[in-house]
């Protein structure tokens, strides 16, 4: 149950089957990202892949008959047409063609007819049609998947293809459950079931021996938990995504002042960076202390490198220099990232904001919270987007409270020049009428002592880390693994596979509307206790991308549940 390993095995299969010798790999836009998430360029060089080209962009006409060409593309009509053109006038000596998903036989026939020079050696399907973010996390990079609260056809098609690929790469023929009442979740579940039935020979992996239950595919809807994407995050990976944005394991620091030239863009991959792999789930205070220790270790080694006084010292220096250089890059990279995170925390008063966000999400203290929110969002030093998220959390929490004053808070946002339309859109998208059950009653409050300021000693400037909020996904998975009856909330579309009261041992969760790194953290903790869970989503959200998702999903919708807010926001475009 490791999506990075699954993709790696497929890529290694491609490079091994083409045999020894210099190779070029021909990719499309999406498979370029799929490869780069699993392998660094140096890793591919070790597999004798020396050139990377895009099938869908301008290329030179120079013939390179001495090279073998590995083609790794998605099985789209556009790619088949481009590949047919390539085979009519082959540029390379031989072609090994791999499609990232199931391809129709008619398209194979088209390619065969174009291969008059018989330069194609292999045509195969490999099921690596998704982005492997973490070992337990995948994404399809679909920034917005709905319009008018229904699937965009392209997003639905891509999600069906991607999920089929995930199941095939993990060798699963699962029970398929979906969130009852969610049309998008049910629609996706039906399409996946139809695909697994149509391609039954591909999904004929094994019988479940000794009465072991089949695996589970659980399709959820983002609207059931709109709180998690709105909260500021305090673990390293989630915090970087929230404040700096991670895209395909890369972070753009080019707009950050005084960043070294070689670190304008940094790669954060647990598979390629041992330090990051060990600390991506550490909280802000812990990672600060760890980087401080790493820095001290580096300084000690740097002093040792200067002591070159004999032939033996020189030899030792040459042998250890690559590791020293690598460590130097790791230290500099994470110092750059942490330095910017620290600056943003101070600049945007994130400690104070996060404390209040957590209290709104976890405690029902309307009057006191309302006064604090009014004070904070009126402060010009608070970024308008941060203020708006606080109001959005309040609106979700106290939507039906007798003294709810969402319009009063929106007036403050409006006076500051902020766009207030997000809040009524959010209520239409994920208000109480849309959610399954009561979200806020499911939040568990941990020991009161842990809710006070958690001082992390050893690094100046780190004040507190709050982790009161528990994402809904954790509660859902615990219910499933404890064998509780989930049929009323998550019915099975292929109920004939459902064993009687036997919890699954392997679960793939897919969230329509995007997953978050906080949910990936919850899955990581569950896996550490012996469970086997993989999480995926149409995208991986931070609060900004989630707001865009909400606005896109509700575009063109006739608002029914926020009439008072709509009247207030009448001057804005809906």
Q: What would the principal axes of the Cα set say about the shape?
A: globular
In terms of DSSP E residues, the strand content is 5-15%
Structural class by SSE content: alpha/beta
SS field, number of helical segments: 21
CATH class placement of the domain at 133-225 and 471-541: Alpha Beta
- Return Rg in Å: 26 Å
Give the distance, in angstroms, between the N- and C-terminal Cα atoms: 44 Å
What would CATH call the homologous superfamily of the domain at 133-225 and 471-541?
Sec1/Munc18 (SM) protein, domain 2
Mean of residue pLDDT values = 87
CATH topology label of the domain at 133-225 and 471-541:
Rossmann fold
Describe the structure concisely for a colleague.
This protein has helices spanning 3-17, 29-38, 41-46, 77-88, 105-114, 153-169, 183-198, 236-243, 274-279, 284-305, 311-347, 350-362, 366-377, 384-397, 406-415, 422-430, 448-451, 472-481, 517-528, 543-553, 563-568; strands spanning 23-27, 49-54, 64-73, 92-99, 120-125, 131-134, 137-139, 146-147, 150-151, 175-178, 216-221, 246-247, 250-252, 265-267, 506-512, 515-516, 532-537, 540-541.
């Amino acid at each position: 149950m490791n999506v990075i390993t699954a993709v790696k095995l497929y890529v290694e299969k491609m490079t091994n089957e083409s045999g020894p010798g210099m190779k070029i790999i021909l990719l499309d836009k999406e498979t370029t990202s799929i490869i780069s998430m699993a392998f660094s360029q140096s890793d591919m060089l070790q597999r004798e892949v020396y050139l990377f080209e895009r099938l869908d962009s301008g290329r030179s006409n120079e013939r390179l008959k001495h090279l073998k060409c590995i083609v790794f593309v998605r099985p789209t009509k556009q790619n088949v047409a481009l590949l047919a053109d390539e085979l009519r006038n082959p540029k390379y000596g031989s072609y090994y063609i791999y499609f990232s998903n199931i391809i129709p036989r008619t398209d194979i026939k088209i390619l065969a007819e174009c291969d008059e020079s018989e330069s194609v050696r292999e045509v195969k399907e490999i099921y690596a049609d998704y982005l492997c973010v973490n070992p337990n996390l995948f994404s399809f990079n679909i920034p917005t998947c709905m319009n008018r609260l229904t699937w965009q056809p392209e997003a639905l098609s891509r999600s069906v293809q991607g999920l089929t690929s995930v199941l095939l790469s993990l060798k699963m023929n699962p029970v398929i459950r979906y969130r009852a009442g969610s049309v998008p979740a049910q629609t996706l579940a039906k399409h996946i079931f139809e695909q697994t039935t149509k391609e039954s020979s591909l999904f004929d992996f094994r019988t479940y021996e000794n009465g072991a239950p089949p695996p589970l595919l659980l399709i959820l809807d983002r609207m059931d938990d709109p709180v998690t994407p709105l909260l500021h995050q305090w673990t390293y990976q989630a915090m970087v995504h929230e404040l700096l944005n991670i895209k395909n394991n890369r972070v753009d620091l080019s707009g950050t002042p005084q960043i070294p030239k070689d670190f304008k863009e940094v790669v954060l991959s647990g598979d390629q960076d041992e330090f990051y792999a060990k600390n991506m789930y550490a909280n802000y205070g812990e990672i600060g202390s760890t980087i401080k220790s790493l820095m001290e270790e580096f300084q000690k080694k740097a002093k040792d490198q200067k002591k070159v006084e004999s032939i033996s010292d020189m030899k030792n220096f040459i042998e250890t220099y690559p590791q020293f250089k690598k460590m130097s890059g790791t230290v500099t990279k994470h110092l750059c990232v942490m330095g910017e995170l620290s600056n943003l925390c101070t600049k945007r008063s994130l400690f104070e904001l996060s404390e209040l966000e957590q209290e709104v999400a976890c405690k029902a203290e309307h009057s006191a919270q309302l006064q604090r929110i009014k004070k904070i969002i009126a402060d010009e030093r608070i970024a308008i987007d941060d203020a708006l998220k606080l109001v959005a959390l309040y609106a979700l929490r106290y939507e039906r409270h007798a003294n709810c004053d969402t319009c009063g808070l929106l007036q403050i946002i409006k006076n500051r020049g902020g766009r207030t339309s997000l809040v009524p859109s959010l209520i239409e998208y994920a208000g109480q009428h849309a959610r399954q059950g009561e979200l806020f009653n499911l939040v568990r409050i941990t020991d009161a002592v842990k809710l006070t300021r958690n001082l992390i000693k050893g690094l100046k400037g780190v004040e507190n880390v709050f982790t009161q909020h528990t994402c809904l996904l954790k509660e859902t998975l615990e219910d499933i693994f404890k064998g509780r009856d989930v049929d009323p909330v998550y019915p099975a579309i292929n109920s004939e596979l459902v064993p009687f009261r036997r919890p699954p041992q392997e679960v793939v969760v897919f969230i329509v509307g995007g997953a978050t790194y906080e949910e990936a953290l919850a899955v990581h903790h569950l896996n550490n206790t012996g469970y086997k869970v993989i999480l995926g989503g149409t995208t991986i959200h931070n609060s900004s991308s989630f707001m865009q998702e909400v606005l896109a999903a509700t575009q063109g919708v006739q608002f029914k549940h926020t009439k008072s807010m709509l009247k207030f926001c009448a001057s804005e475009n809906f």
